[in-house]
Write a structure and sequence with these properties.
Blueprint (H helix, E strand, L loop, with lengths): L5 H8 L7 H5 L11 E7 L13 H9 L1 E7 L6 H10 L3 H4 L5 E4 L4 E4 L3 H4 L11 H7 L4 E4 L25 H12 L9 E6 L1 H9 L4 H23 L6 E6 L5 E2 L5 E3 L11 E4 L3 E5 L5 H8 L5 E5 L18 E5 L4 E3 L9 E2 L13 E4 L6 E7 L3 H9 L13 H4 L10
Parallel strand pairs: 1-6, 1-7, 2-17, 5-6, 9-14
Antiparallel strand pairs: 2-16, 3-4, 7-16, 8-15, 10-11, 11-13, 12-13
Helix pairs in contact: 1-10, 8-10, 9-10
Protein backbone atom coordinates (compact mmCIF):
# COMPACT_ATOMS: atom_id res chain seq x y z
CA UNK A 1 0.00 0.00 0.00
CA UNK A 2 1.36 3.40 -0.93
CA UNK A 3 1.63 6.01 1.83
CA UNK A 4 -0.92 8.80 1.83
CA UNK A 5 0.77 12.07 0.96
CA UNK A 6 1.19 14.86 3.50
CA UNK A 7 -0.33 17.33 1.08
CA UNK A 8 -3.44 15.20 0.75
CA UNK A 9 -3.79 15.02 4.50
CA UNK A 10 -3.50 18.79 4.71
CA UNK A 11 -6.28 19.11 2.18
CA UNK A 12 -8.43 16.75 4.25
CA UNK A 13 -8.20 18.80 7.41
CA UNK A 14 -8.44 22.25 5.83
CA UNK A 15 -11.57 24.37 6.18
CA UNK A 16 -13.28 26.15 3.34
CA UNK A 17 -16.31 28.19 2.34
CA UNK A 18 -19.20 28.30 4.75
CA UNK A 19 -17.97 25.12 6.44
CA UNK A 20 -15.66 27.12 8.65
CA UNK A 21 -12.98 25.89 11.03
CA UNK A 22 -15.16 27.13 13.87
CA UNK A 23 -17.96 24.84 12.71
CA UNK A 24 -15.60 21.89 12.34
CA UNK A 25 -14.01 22.36 15.73
CA UNK A 26 -17.04 23.31 17.77
CA UNK A 27 -17.73 21.32 20.88
CA UNK A 28 -20.54 18.90 20.28
CA UNK A 29 -22.37 16.17 22.14
CA UNK A 30 -21.14 13.45 19.76
CA UNK A 31 -17.53 13.84 20.91
CA UNK A 32 -17.47 10.53 22.80
CA UNK A 33 -19.85 8.64 20.55
CA UNK A 34 -20.26 4.89 20.76
CA UNK A 35 -23.31 4.38 18.51
CA UNK A 36 -22.33 3.07 15.06
CA UNK A 37 -22.97 5.38 12.12
CA UNK A 38 -23.36 4.35 8.48
CA UNK A 39 -23.03 7.00 5.76
CA UNK A 40 -24.10 6.04 2.24
CA UNK A 41 -22.56 8.45 -0.28
CA UNK A 42 -23.62 8.48 -3.93
CA UNK A 43 -21.24 10.05 -6.46
CA UNK A 44 -23.55 10.02 -9.46
CA UNK A 45 -21.79 8.89 -12.65
CA UNK A 46 -18.40 8.18 -11.05
CA UNK A 47 -16.49 5.57 -13.10
CA UNK A 48 -13.79 3.36 -11.54
CA UNK A 49 -11.24 4.82 -13.97
CA UNK A 50 -11.69 8.25 -12.35
CA UNK A 51 -10.19 6.94 -9.09
CA UNK A 52 -6.46 7.72 -8.95
CA UNK A 53 -3.99 8.63 -6.21
CA UNK A 54 -3.24 11.98 -7.89
CA UNK A 55 -6.74 13.19 -8.81
CA UNK A 56 -8.72 11.64 -5.95
CA UNK A 57 -6.34 11.24 -2.98
CA UNK A 58 -9.06 11.07 -0.32
CA UNK A 59 -11.14 8.45 -2.08
CA UNK A 60 -7.97 6.58 -3.00
CA UNK A 61 -6.89 6.50 0.63
CA UNK A 62 -10.28 5.25 1.81
CA UNK A 63 -10.18 2.54 -0.87
CA UNK A 64 -6.70 1.45 0.19
CA UNK A 65 -7.66 1.36 3.87
CA UNK A 66 -10.91 -0.53 3.28
CA UNK A 67 -12.59 -2.59 0.58
CA UNK A 68 -12.83 -1.57 -3.05
CA UNK A 69 -14.62 -3.30 -5.92
CA UNK A 70 -13.19 -3.49 -9.40
CA UNK A 71 -16.56 -2.15 -10.44
CA UNK A 72 -20.16 -1.92 -9.24
CA UNK A 73 -22.58 -3.38 -11.79
CA UNK A 74 -25.83 -1.48 -11.93
CA UNK A 75 -29.25 -2.99 -12.37
CA UNK A 76 -30.89 -2.68 -15.78
CA UNK A 77 -31.43 -0.04 -17.01
CA UNK A 78 -28.22 1.73 -15.98
CA UNK A 79 -30.04 4.95 -15.12
CA UNK A 80 -30.08 7.17 -12.03
CA UNK A 81 -33.45 6.72 -10.34
CA UNK A 82 -33.82 2.96 -10.86
CA UNK A 83 -30.38 2.28 -9.43
CA UNK A 84 -30.60 4.60 -6.46
CA UNK A 85 -33.76 2.78 -5.43
CA UNK A 86 -32.05 -0.59 -5.99
CA UNK A 87 -29.20 0.44 -3.69
CA UNK A 88 -31.54 1.09 -0.74
CA UNK A 89 -33.97 -1.79 -1.36
CA UNK A 90 -31.85 -4.58 -2.81
CA UNK A 91 -34.53 -5.09 -5.45
CA UNK A 92 -34.34 -4.95 -9.22
CA UNK A 93 -36.27 -2.14 -10.94
CA UNK A 94 -38.61 -4.85 -12.25
CA UNK A 95 -39.61 -5.47 -8.62
CA UNK A 96 -39.39 -2.04 -6.95
CA UNK A 97 -41.22 -0.33 -9.80
CA UNK A 98 -38.95 2.63 -10.57
CA UNK A 99 -38.11 1.27 -14.00
CA UNK A 100 -36.75 4.42 -15.62
CA UNK A 101 -36.13 8.12 -15.02
CA UNK A 102 -39.29 8.70 -17.03
CA UNK A 103 -42.23 6.30 -17.08
CA UNK A 104 -45.98 5.95 -17.36
CA UNK A 105 -48.16 3.90 -15.06
CA UNK A 106 -50.89 2.39 -17.24
CA UNK A 107 -53.01 1.69 -14.17
CA UNK A 108 -53.37 5.43 -13.57
CA UNK A 109 -52.07 7.01 -16.84
CA UNK A 110 -49.87 9.23 -14.68
CA UNK A 111 -46.46 10.24 -16.04
CA UNK A 112 -43.28 10.27 -13.97
CA UNK A 113 -40.26 12.42 -14.74
CA UNK A 114 -37.39 13.06 -12.38
CA UNK A 115 -37.80 16.83 -12.88
CA UNK A 116 -41.45 16.83 -11.85
CA UNK A 117 -41.91 17.89 -8.24
CA UNK A 118 -45.49 16.58 -8.32
CA UNK A 119 -44.36 13.14 -9.51
CA UNK A 120 -41.35 12.83 -7.20
CA UNK A 121 -43.50 13.62 -4.14
CA UNK A 122 -46.42 11.41 -5.20
CA UNK A 123 -46.45 8.34 -2.92
CA UNK A 124 -48.10 6.22 -5.63
CA UNK A 125 -44.81 5.71 -7.47
CA UNK A 126 -42.84 4.44 -4.48
CA UNK A 127 -45.06 1.95 -2.67
CA UNK A 128 -43.81 -1.33 -4.13
CA UNK A 129 -40.63 -1.63 -2.05
CA UNK A 130 -39.49 -0.44 1.37
CA UNK A 131 -36.26 1.59 1.28
CA UNK A 132 -33.81 1.26 4.11
CA UNK A 133 -34.90 4.42 5.92
CA UNK A 134 -38.44 3.05 6.32
CA UNK A 135 -37.10 -0.23 7.70
CA UNK A 136 -34.87 1.63 10.13
CA UNK A 137 -37.68 3.78 11.45
CA UNK A 138 -39.97 0.78 11.81
CA UNK A 139 -37.25 -0.99 13.81
CA UNK A 140 -36.62 1.94 16.14
CA UNK A 141 -33.61 3.57 14.50
CA UNK A 142 -32.99 7.01 13.03
CA UNK A 143 -32.45 7.71 9.33
CA UNK A 144 -31.66 11.01 7.60
CA UNK A 145 -31.43 11.51 3.83
CA UNK A 146 -29.60 14.38 2.19
CA UNK A 147 -31.13 13.74 -1.23
CA UNK A 148 -32.09 10.28 -2.44
CA UNK A 149 -34.79 9.23 -4.89
CA UNK A 150 -37.88 8.21 -2.95
CA UNK A 151 -37.03 10.13 0.20
CA UNK A 152 -39.39 13.01 -0.62
CA UNK A 153 -42.60 10.97 -0.44
CA UNK A 154 -44.16 8.93 2.37
CA UNK A 155 -43.76 5.20 1.74
CA UNK A 156 -46.33 3.19 3.68
CA UNK A 157 -46.83 6.44 5.58
CA UNK A 158 -43.19 6.73 6.65
CA UNK A 159 -40.52 9.27 5.70
CA UNK A 160 -36.92 9.67 6.90
CA UNK A 161 -36.47 11.45 10.23
CA UNK A 162 -34.69 14.20 8.28
CA UNK A 163 -35.05 14.83 4.56
CA UNK A 164 -34.89 17.67 2.06
CA UNK A 165 -36.44 18.50 -1.27
CA UNK A 166 -33.82 17.98 -3.92
CA UNK A 167 -31.94 21.17 -4.77
CA UNK A 168 -29.50 20.64 -7.62
CA UNK A 169 -27.81 23.97 -6.89
CA UNK A 170 -27.17 23.40 -3.19
CA UNK A 171 -23.42 23.75 -2.70
CA UNK A 172 -21.21 21.00 -1.35
CA UNK A 173 -20.48 23.19 1.65
CA UNK A 174 -24.17 23.61 2.44
CA UNK A 175 -24.81 19.89 2.04
CA UNK A 176 -22.03 19.02 4.44
CA UNK A 177 -23.10 21.62 6.98
CA UNK A 178 -26.63 20.22 6.91
CA UNK A 179 -25.41 16.66 7.36
CA UNK A 180 -23.04 17.64 10.16
CA UNK A 181 -25.86 19.45 11.90
CA UNK A 182 -27.82 16.19 12.03
CA UNK A 183 -24.76 14.37 13.34
CA UNK A 184 -24.17 16.94 16.11
CA UNK A 185 -27.21 15.89 18.09
CA UNK A 186 -26.90 14.00 21.35
CA UNK A 187 -26.20 10.38 20.62
CA UNK A 188 -29.70 9.11 21.36
CA UNK A 189 -31.09 11.52 18.75
CA UNK A 190 -28.29 11.25 16.20
CA UNK A 191 -29.00 9.31 13.00
CA UNK A 192 -27.87 5.72 12.71
CA UNK A 193 -27.88 6.10 8.93
CA UNK A 194 -27.48 9.07 6.60
CA UNK A 195 -27.26 9.50 2.84
CA UNK A 196 -25.31 12.11 0.91
CA UNK A 197 -25.51 12.77 -2.83
CA UNK A 198 -23.30 14.64 -5.30
CA UNK A 199 -24.28 15.00 -8.98
CA UNK A 200 -21.19 16.78 -10.32
CA UNK A 201 -19.67 13.87 -12.22
CA UNK A 202 -22.93 12.95 -13.93
CA UNK A 203 -23.59 16.53 -15.03
CA UNK A 204 -20.04 17.02 -16.32
CA UNK A 205 -20.02 13.65 -18.08
CA UNK A 206 -23.26 14.37 -19.90
CA UNK A 207 -22.30 17.86 -21.02
CA UNK A 208 -18.64 17.36 -21.90
CA UNK A 209 -18.07 13.62 -22.17
CA UNK A 210 -16.44 11.19 -19.75
CA UNK A 211 -12.82 12.02 -20.63
CA UNK A 212 -13.18 15.80 -20.47
CA UNK A 213 -11.49 18.46 -18.39
CA UNK A 214 -14.89 19.22 -16.88
CA UNK A 215 -15.05 15.68 -15.54
CA UNK A 216 -11.53 15.91 -14.16
CA UNK A 217 -12.42 19.09 -12.27
CA UNK A 218 -15.66 17.59 -10.98
CA UNK A 219 -13.76 14.52 -9.82
CA UNK A 220 -11.37 16.67 -7.81
CA UNK A 221 -14.26 18.64 -6.33
CA UNK A 222 -16.17 15.63 -5.01
CA UNK A 223 -12.94 14.10 -3.72
CA UNK A 224 -12.15 17.24 -1.74
CA UNK A 225 -15.66 17.18 -0.27
CA UNK A 226 -15.13 13.59 0.85
CA UNK A 227 -11.90 14.74 2.49
CA UNK A 228 -13.73 17.54 4.30
CA UNK A 229 -16.42 15.13 5.44
CA UNK A 230 -13.85 12.75 6.94
CA UNK A 231 -12.04 15.62 8.66
CA UNK A 232 -15.30 16.90 10.14
CA UNK A 233 -16.28 13.45 11.40
CA UNK A 234 -12.91 13.17 13.13
CA UNK A 235 -13.34 16.60 14.71
CA UNK A 236 -16.76 15.61 16.00
CA UNK A 237 -15.57 12.37 17.56
CA UNK A 238 -17.66 9.99 15.43
CA UNK A 239 -15.10 8.84 12.86
CA UNK A 240 -14.11 5.72 14.80
CA UNK A 241 -17.78 4.65 14.84
CA UNK A 242 -18.41 5.44 11.16
CA UNK A 243 -18.60 3.18 8.13
CA UNK A 244 -18.52 4.99 4.80
CA UNK A 245 -20.18 3.19 1.90
CA UNK A 246 -19.35 5.15 -1.25
CA UNK A 247 -21.13 4.15 -4.46
CA UNK A 248 -22.10 5.39 -7.87
CA UNK A 249 -25.24 4.45 -9.73
CA UNK A 250 -23.65 3.92 -13.14
CA UNK A 251 -20.72 4.96 -15.30
CA UNK A 252 -20.62 7.09 -18.44
CA UNK A 253 -19.81 6.52 -22.12
CA UNK A 254 -18.92 8.91 -24.94
CA UNK A 255 -21.96 9.43 -27.17
CA UNK A 256 -20.95 11.51 -30.22
CA UNK A 257 -23.69 13.46 -32.03
CA UNK A 258 -23.24 11.41 -35.21
CA UNK A 259 -24.24 8.25 -33.32
CA UNK A 260 -27.87 9.24 -32.84
CA UNK A 261 -30.32 6.62 -34.11
CA UNK A 262 -33.06 8.59 -35.84
CA UNK A 263 -36.23 6.62 -35.16
CA UNK A 264 -38.88 9.19 -36.01
CA UNK A 265 -40.21 7.28 -39.03
CA UNK A 266 -39.74 3.76 -37.65
CA UNK A 267 -43.30 3.65 -36.36
CA UNK A 268 -44.92 5.50 -39.27
CA UNK A 269 -47.06 2.51 -40.21
CA UNK A 270 -48.31 2.13 -36.65
CA UNK A 271 -50.04 5.41 -35.72
CA UNK A 272 -51.05 4.39 -32.19
CA UNK A 273 -47.62 3.12 -31.14
CA UNK A 274 -45.49 5.64 -29.22
CA UNK A 275 -41.87 5.97 -28.20
CA UNK A 276 -42.26 6.15 -24.43
CA UNK A 277 -38.52 6.08 -23.63
CA UNK A 278 -35.68 7.51 -25.70
CA UNK A 279 -31.92 7.43 -25.32
CA UNK A 280 -29.54 4.54 -24.73
CA UNK A 281 -32.45 2.50 -23.37
CA UNK A 282 -35.61 3.15 -25.39
CA UNK A 283 -39.11 1.72 -25.29
CA UNK A 284 -42.32 1.58 -27.32
CA UNK A 285 -45.85 1.41 -25.94
CA UNK A 286 -47.94 -0.42 -28.57
CA UNK A 287 -51.37 0.94 -27.60
CA UNK A 288 -53.01 -1.94 -29.51
CA UNK A 289 -50.65 -2.10 -32.48
CA UNK A 290 -49.19 -5.41 -33.61
CA UNK A 291 -46.16 -6.65 -31.68
CA UNK A 292 -44.83 -8.56 -34.67
CA UNK A 293 -45.39 -5.66 -37.03
CA UNK A 294 -43.64 -3.12 -34.82
CA UNK A 295 -40.78 -5.54 -34.10
CA UNK A 296 -40.28 -6.03 -37.85
CA UNK A 297 -40.13 -2.27 -38.35
CA UNK A 298 -37.67 -1.80 -35.50
CA UNK A 299 -35.43 -4.57 -36.79
CA UNK A 300 -34.51 -2.31 -39.70
CA UNK A 301 -32.80 0.14 -37.32
CA UNK A 302 -29.03 -0.19 -36.96
CA UNK A 303 -26.99 -0.23 -33.75
CA UNK A 304 -29.92 -1.12 -31.52
CA UNK A 305 -31.52 -4.37 -30.35
CA UNK A 306 -35.22 -4.57 -29.46
CA UNK A 307 -37.26 -7.19 -27.60
CA UNK A 308 -40.87 -7.62 -26.54
CA UNK A 309 -40.65 -6.98 -22.80
CA UNK A 310 -41.43 -10.58 -21.89
CA UNK A 311 -38.59 -11.83 -24.12
CA UNK A 312 -35.74 -9.71 -22.82
CA UNK A 313 -32.46 -11.52 -22.02
CA UNK A 314 -32.81 -13.15 -18.59
CA UNK A 315 -29.59 -11.59 -17.32
CA UNK A 316 -31.30 -8.17 -17.33
CA UNK A 317 -33.93 -9.41 -14.83
CA UNK A 318 -36.32 -6.93 -16.42
CA UNK A 319 -39.55 -7.15 -18.33
CA UNK A 320 -42.56 -7.95 -16.12
CA UNK A 321 -43.53 -4.66 -14.48
CA UNK A 322 -46.55 -2.85 -15.86
CA UNK A 323 -44.60 0.42 -16.14
CA UNK A 324 -42.18 -1.08 -18.65
CA UNK A 325 -43.40 -0.39 -22.21
CA UNK A 326 -44.30 -3.29 -24.48
CA UNK A 327 -41.02 -3.25 -26.40
CA UNK A 328 -37.63 -2.36 -24.94
CA UNK A 329 -34.66 -1.35 -27.09
CA UNK A 330 -31.00 -1.20 -26.05
CA UNK A 331 -28.54 0.79 -28.13
CA UNK A 332 -24.97 -0.23 -28.85
CA UNK A 333 -22.61 1.70 -26.63
CA UNK A 334 -22.16 5.27 -27.82
CA UNK A 335 -25.47 5.31 -29.70
CA UNK A 336 -28.88 6.56 -28.59
CA UNK A 337 -32.40 6.52 -29.98
CA UNK A 338 -34.06 9.84 -30.87
CA UNK A 339 -37.40 10.66 -32.49
CA UNK A 340 -36.39 14.26 -33.25
CA UNK A 341 -33.87 14.83 -36.07
CA UNK A 342 -33.21 18.34 -34.78
CA UNK A 343 -32.33 17.29 -31.24
CA UNK A 344 -28.82 16.14 -30.46
CA UNK A 345 -28.22 14.01 -27.42
CA UNK A 346 -25.70 14.70 -24.65
CA UNK A 347 -22.02 14.08 -25.35
CA UNK A 348 -21.90 11.51 -22.55
CA UNK A 349 -24.59 8.96 -21.83
CA UNK A 350 -25.44 5.97 -19.69
CA UNK A 351 -28.32 3.52 -19.88
CA UNK A 352 -26.30 0.97 -21.85
CA UNK A 353 -25.75 -2.69 -20.98
CA UNK A 354 -24.75 -2.65 -17.29
CA UNK A 355 -22.09 -5.29 -17.86
CA UNK A 356 -20.06 -2.99 -20.13
CA UNK A 357 -17.00 -1.55 -18.40
CA UNK A 358 -18.01 2.03 -19.18
CA UNK A 359 -21.26 1.50 -17.27
CA UNK A 360 -19.61 0.25 -14.08
CA UNK A 361 -19.84 2.38 -10.97
CA UNK A 362 -17.60 2.48 -7.90
CA UNK A 363 -17.87 0.79 -4.53
CA UNK A 364 -15.62 1.81 -1.64
CA UNK A 365 -16.34 0.67 1.92
CA UNK A 366 -14.20 2.02 4.74
CA UNK A 367 -14.41 1.98 8.51
CA UNK A 368 -13.28 0.16 11.66
CA UNK A 369 -15.43 -2.88 10.86
CA UNK A 370 -14.17 -3.18 7.28
CA UNK A 371 -11.27 -5.35 6.18
CA UNK A 372 -8.72 -4.36 3.54
CA UNK A 373 -9.79 -6.14 0.37
CA UNK A 374 -9.67 -5.72 -3.38
CA UNK A 375 -12.91 -7.17 -4.74
CA UNK A 376 -13.90 -8.28 -8.21
CA UNK A 377 -17.06 -6.95 -9.86
CA UNK A 378 -20.00 -6.58 -7.46
CA UNK A 379 -23.70 -6.33 -8.28
CA UNK A 380 -25.32 -3.30 -6.71
CA UNK A 381 -28.11 -5.60 -5.52
CA UNK A 382 -25.64 -6.67 -2.82
CA UNK A 383 -25.14 -3.21 -1.28
CA UNK A 384 -28.46 -3.38 0.57
CA UNK A 385 -27.47 -6.57 2.40
CA UNK A 386 -24.24 -4.96 3.56
CA UNK A 387 -26.09 -1.88 4.83
CA UNK A 388 -28.60 -4.03 6.71
CA UNK A 389 -25.80 -5.99 8.37
CA UNK A 390 -23.89 -2.84 9.31
CA UNK A 391 -27.04 -1.37 10.85
CA UNK A 392 -28.13 -4.59 12.55
CA UNK A 393 -31.70 -4.53 11.29
CA UNK A 394 -33.88 -7.19 9.73
CA UNK A 395 -33.87 -7.00 5.94
CA UNK A 396 -36.98 -6.66 3.82
CA UNK A 397 -37.59 -9.07 0.96
CA UNK A 398 -34.91 -8.38 -1.65
CA UNK A 399 -33.16 -9.80 -4.71
CA UNK A 400 -29.64 -9.85 -3.29
CA UNK A 401 -27.76 -12.94 -2.13
CA UNK A 402 -25.87 -11.34 0.79
CA UNK A 403 -22.52 -12.06 -0.85
CA UNK A 404 -20.88 -8.71 -0.07
CA UNK A 405 -20.90 -8.72 3.72
CA UNK A 406 -18.68 -11.81 4.12
CA UNK A 407 -16.14 -10.24 1.77
CA UNK A 408 -15.79 -6.87 3.51
CA UNK A 409 -16.80 -7.25 7.17
CA UNK A 410 -14.16 -8.15 9.74
CA UNK A 411 -15.06 -10.84 12.25
CA UNK A 412 -16.74 -9.19 15.28
CA UNK A 413 -13.67 -9.61 17.51
CA UNK A 414 -11.35 -8.04 14.93
CA UNK A 415 -13.75 -5.11 14.55
CA UNK A 416 -13.68 -4.42 18.29
CA UNK A 417 -17.27 -5.52 18.77
CA UNK A 418 -18.51 -7.48 21.77
Amino acid sequence: MRPFSTSALLIAVSCWGVLSCAVLAQANPAANATKPLVILVSLDGFKPSYLTEVETPHLFYLAQQGSQAKGLISAFPSLTFPNHVTLVTGQTPDHHGIVNNTMTDPATTQRFTLGSREAVENPMWWQEALPLWVTLRQQGKIASTLFWPGSEAPIQGVMPNDWMRYNHHMTHEARLETLLGWLSRVEAQRPDFVTLYFSDLDSAGHSAGPDSEAVRLATRKVDQSIGHLVAALKQRGVWTQTTLVIVSDHGMALSPPEKVIQAKTALAAFPDARWEWLGATAGVRLNGESTDGVMTALSKLSNVACWPKASMPKRFRFGTHRRIPDIVCLSDIGYSVSDNPERKGPLGQHGYDPELTDMHGILIVSGPRIRQAQLELVSNLEVYGLLVNLLNVKAEKNDGENTLSPLVLKPPSAAGMP
